[in-house]
Amino acid sequence: MQQIRRGILTGFDSSTYTASVLLLEATSATLGNVPIATHIDGTSAQVGGLCAVLFFDEQNYQDAIIIAIAPNGSDGIPTPAPGRITFVPGFQQFSTTTINSGVTSTFTVTGGSSGIPTGALGVLCKVFYSSPTAGAFLHLAPHGASDLTVYMTLGNIQVASSFVYGGGLLAVDAQGKIDIKANVGNCTVWLSTSGYVV
Predict the structure, then answer these.
(1) What's the whole-model pTM score?
(2) Does the residue 46 lie in any domain?
């Protein structure tokens, strides 16, 4: 018969994707080399965390798999919390949007048909811009950030009216908004997204 038992994770080997588990029903029994379900990543497989072990045959303790891991009080909580990237089809958030020099514009990049859910912590984005002013550049940050300069910067444009391309992960605020500030010259901006972090 199949059975699910509770345990405490005592070790994790990312190279073999196996773990050691102390079974709660038998506190002297530690199982080694137990496979972990692949939806559990290394940031979640924290030593000291509670786990659910599925035994396919309760008579054979080697025929098992760890199917879930949860915090055990203050133990087994990943620090910082895990962030997982999910890729979605590319979505043009906005295009040919002019931001004047010195102005910060706010955009919502979650929800709607973007594929980016509300509650996302950040977005995988591609940004490019053009400016008639050499030396122009952009600062991008989560909406309301106290210092836009510590997040993403794109530029400086070397030749007037040419383009600068870039991309990366950009944090968003709790409402899924970002701020973009143009510096030195007016900038025409395009931004698309293709993934998010939760």
Answers:
(1) 0.68
(2) yes
